[in-house]
Amino acid sequence: MADTTADPTTTATPAIADPESARGAESVNGPRRPARTRLGRTGQVLGRAFATVWANPKARVGLVILGMFVLMAIFAPLLAPYSPHDDSFGRNEPGSAAHWLGTTGAGEDVLSQVIYGARVSLLVGFVAGGLSTVVAVVIGLSWGYLRGWGNDVVNFLVNLFLVMPGLPLMIIIAAYLQNGGLPMIILVVVITGWAWGARVLRSQTQSLRSRDFVTAAIFSGESSARVVFREILPNMTSMIAGSFFGAATSAVLAESGLSFLGLGDMATVSWGSMIFWAQNSMAILTGQWILLFAPGLCIALLATSMTLVNFGVDGLSNPRLREGTGR
Amino acid sequence: MSLLEIQDLSVVYEPRGAVPTHAVKNASLSLEQGEFVGLVGESGSGKSTLGFAVTRLAKAPARISGGRIVFDGTDIAHLDAEELRSQRRGGFAMVLQSGMNALNPVRSIANHFGDIFAAHGHVPKGRRRQRAIELLDKVQLPSTVLDRYPGELSGGMRQRVSIALALSLEPRLMVFDEPTTALDVLVQHAVMDTVRELQAAEGFTAVLISHDLGVVLESAERVVVMHDGEIVEDGASRQIFSAPAHPYTQMLLSHYADPRAEVVELPGFERKASAAERAGGNGEARPERAAAHDAIVVDHVSKVYPPPRRGEKAVTAVDDVSFRLEPGAAMALVGQSGSGKSTIAKMVTGVERPTSGTVTFGDLRVDRLRRRQLRTLHADVQMVFQDPYSALNPLHTVEYTLTRPVENFTGLKGEAARERVLQLLETVGLTPVEQYAAKLPHQLSGGQRQRVVIARALASDPQVLIADEPVSMLDVSLRAGVLSLLEDLRADLGVSLLYITHDLLSARVVTDQIMVLHHGKVVESGGTTQVLRFPEDAYTTQLLDAIPQPARRFAGGAAS
């Protein structure tokens, strides 16, 4: 049939039947088939996400450290040799077989306090980080999606929170809500911590909202809320995870800072309050540097581990950021 | 000896944690000095990968896994970075598809030339400006361009600048990777003319990579056809055109036709009489399924956008356009980019409001609809998007994507909704339906995605479909299938079709009426066959001439 084809318009039906159906058949039997149920699919997505994060060496170090702190917090009663509030020991004792890290000025075991302190730090970190991420997501997404006067109001509010210096604000609020305990600290951290996340998520929303699939969802008759939370939100998962770890890191630091300043609940044992009491009893002058060093190191390690995890989270959305793929 | 010898070259993509893809498999090819060779294939055929490998621009995860690339006696497949850099002068250069975006926006054009001259030191300082002007002259740009910034130049001008930059190292081999694909139709034509003249005048060897066999046949002396990473055919253009040997080449060629011809046929496409025509224009006799019963009336509509920057003039995108889309009719809106055709689509679907004039659909004043009322309009007027890759949410299954409009517009729930979704998939020809319903977009080919997009548009049983360049992103072999689907829908379901395109050939086969837009004004309108066969306006003729027609180059008389 090749010899008489001077005119392309009269060529006989080509031998290649239909590449589309050929490709279809191939992908129907392809190896990666999505799970049928929604639960199964969510599990698959989470598993793949974890594998991506784990593949990054920095993130792997972060995950290991973070995992150790989580285990330490969960199993604190089993791991700690004494109760953290037990002040029946000798005061300002140096490290010994009975008290590995010594005792405080009030006669409590330092090691036990460090182990129990992880509970408060992780609790505040995850709860305050989570809450401020939720606020950031709700405000950032609707701010990025909606237009009109409401947008300007939110813009003003967010800018207000951005320019206000965080630490002084925190101190003022904490002093005003004296003795509120942990919920108070979480509230203070959330109020001062959501604005950055909202700003970042808003700009991503703005770039996603002009994509065709968002317009298509509007043509499908979807309400604004559904467009934002079912179409746009899932496409920003990695960014949200990143902003969660960022917020959790600053929450851990803020909690320690507030406790160190004596603005937290001094009855609970946290790494920040340990440093506060050590400072009060002039631990450095008495040579008990470990009283400051141990909780300080824990704070630094926890914050570092979450920052390291974030390196891997970046790779979730942008394959180019995955390490080891060449230049 | 040949200028470039590619022997048994293989390139493999090895992304981490994924199966390696063999993009180029054992390709062998030799190019003589001064040849103009076209490299053709559809997306995924490995043509660009080969081009990048030849100029040693391939980046990880791509890796040359075997074979030799001998350029002028040296094997360049294994040169290190510095040797490669010095080789680039008097060696090989590449012009990219997105070449117009390859310029640094904060540096003037003169700076771009200066960088290259300084890096290779082959032009003395005092002569640099003069030399840059000479180079710009070769690509038909005035010397004033030198002091401008990339943002101040049009897409075509920037692509010309990047060609001039590639020329500045006096290459003996130039690889053009889809140099005109991202440009507007009319500009494409002009840039290709420049490339041809330049090659003839300078005598460098040129490799033109393109998905468009028509463009290649018009310019190249020799054509190399790639399919699935392999070179399937290699021969003189005339021979490829008149006697293609490989079935794949024959298939590619069969999708070219002249929209001006008396009868236009595409393989796999069959024109049907629409429901309205079958009924003889008598409304009562129309079949019950005939969806459309309301006309879209656009009356003296204009759209003026505020000036983009202070001190500039306001932009008139659409200027006093009137037309009537009868129920069940198919109308094409054609024109180059910026002619206002997409703006009209936005106004008809209520996304934008006209500055003046009225748009009505049945009793509905589209130009006065509030945001909440848009839903009423979208139950009847639906849109098929240009880019099937961005029109589907990558995280939702086909079933979810289709269930939403079904639930929103028809009120069906649960099992009934699912029934309807499967029925829609059947309508657009994605069978077995159960399997396609469970798929995510990345598991589908471009053509299949576009079918899902069309199925979604049909979910509300609309009266009117607005198709905005529905096939421009698809490979030629998939186009006919999507076009005939649109044709079937119109004939069987009786929906009206507003078809927006710059591709006159597809407009010819799916529509009855046509409107040619230029700078927001209608310059010509009427029956599609009439207008395309006997164009009256100079602009319509210009658009028709911009379509590559290999038949015109070869054989003179044999042209259809």
Automatic annotation (TrEMBL), chain A:
<dbReference type="InterPro" id="IPR035906">
    <property type="entry name" value="MetI-like_sf"/>
</dbReference>
<feature type="region of interest" description="Disordered">
    <location>
        <begin position="1"/>
        <end position="39"/>
    </location>
</feature>
<dbReference type="InterPro" id="IPR050366">
    <property type="entry name" value="BP-dependent_transpt_permease"/>
</dbReference>
<feature type="transmembrane region" description="Helical">
    <location>
        <begin position="182"/>
        <end position="201"/>
    </location>
</feature>
<dbReference type="Pfam" id="PF12911">
    <property type="entry name" value="OppC_N"/>
</dbReference>
<keyword id="KW-1003">Cell membrane</keyword>
<dbReference type="GO" id="GO:0005886">
    <property type="term" value="C:plasma membrane"/>
</dbReference>
<feature type="transmembrane region" description="Helical">
    <location>
        <begin position="120"/>
        <end position="146"/>
    </location>
</feature>
<feature type="compositionally biased region" description="Low complexity">
    <location>
        <begin position="1"/>
        <end position="19"/>
    </location>
</feature>
<protein>
    <submittedName>
        <fullName>Peptide/nickel transport system permease protein</fullName>
    </submittedName>
</protein>
<feature type="transmembrane region" description="Helical">
    <location>
        <begin position="290"/>
        <end position="313"/>
    </location>
</feature>
<feature type="transmembrane region" description="Helical">
    <location>
        <begin position="153"/>
        <end position="176"/>
    </location>
</feature>
<keyword id="KW-0813">Transport</keyword>
<keyword id="KW-0472">Membrane</keyword>
<dbReference type="Pfam" id="PF00528">
    <property type="entry name" value="BPD_transp_1"/>
</dbReference>
<dbReference type="InterPro" id="IPR025966">
    <property type="entry name" value="OppC_N"/>
</dbReference>
<feature type="transmembrane region" description="Helical">
    <location>
        <begin position="232"/>
        <end position="254"/>
    </location>
</feature>
<keyword id="KW-1133">Transmembrane helix</keyword>
<feature type="transmembrane region" description="Helical">
    <location>
        <begin position="61"/>
        <end position="80"/>
    </location>
</feature>
<keyword id="KW-0812">Transmembrane</keyword>
<dbReference type="GO" id="GO:0071916">
    <property type="term" value="F:dipeptide transmembrane transporter activity"/>
</dbReference>
<feature type="domain" description="ABC transmembrane type-1">
    <location>
        <begin position="118"/>
        <end position="310"/>
    </location>
</feature>
From TrEMBL, chain B:
<dbReference type="InterPro" id="IPR050319">
    <property type="entry name" value="ABC_transp_ATP-bind"/>
</dbReference>
<dbReference type="GO" id="GO:0005524">
    <property type="term" value="F:ATP binding"/>
</dbReference>
<protein>
    <submittedName>
        <fullName>Peptide/nickel transport system ATP-binding protein</fullName>
    </submittedName>
</protein>
<dbReference type="InterPro" id="IPR013563">
    <property type="entry name" value="Oligopep_ABC_C"/>
</dbReference>
<dbReference type="GO" id="GO:0055085">
    <property type="term" value="P:transmembrane transport"/>
</dbReference>
<dbReference type="InterPro" id="IPR017871">
    <property type="entry name" value="ABC_transporter-like_CS"/>
</dbReference>
<dbReference type="Pfam" id="PF00005">
    <property type="entry name" value="ABC_tran"/>
</dbReference>
<dbReference type="InterPro" id="IPR003593">
    <property type="entry name" value="AAA+_ATPase"/>
</dbReference>
<keyword id="KW-0813">Transport</keyword>
<feature type="domain" description="ABC transporter">
    <location>
        <begin position="296"/>
        <end position="544"/>
    </location>
</feature>
<keyword id="KW-0067">ATP-binding</keyword>
<feature type="domain" description="ABC transporter">
    <location>
        <begin position="4"/>
        <end position="253"/>
    </location>
</feature>
<dbReference type="Pfam" id="PF08352">
    <property type="entry name" value="oligo_HPY"/>
</dbReference>
<keyword id="KW-0547">Nucleotide-binding</keyword>
<dbReference type="InterPro" id="IPR003439">
    <property type="entry name" value="ABC_transporter-like_ATP-bd"/>
</dbReference>
<dbReference type="GO" id="GO:0015833">
    <property type="term" value="P:peptide transport"/>
</dbReference>
<dbReference type="GO" id="GO:0016887">
    <property type="term" value="F:ATP hydrolysis activity"/>
</dbReference>
<dbReference type="InterPro" id="IPR027417">
    <property type="entry name" value="P-loop_NTPase"/>
</dbReference>
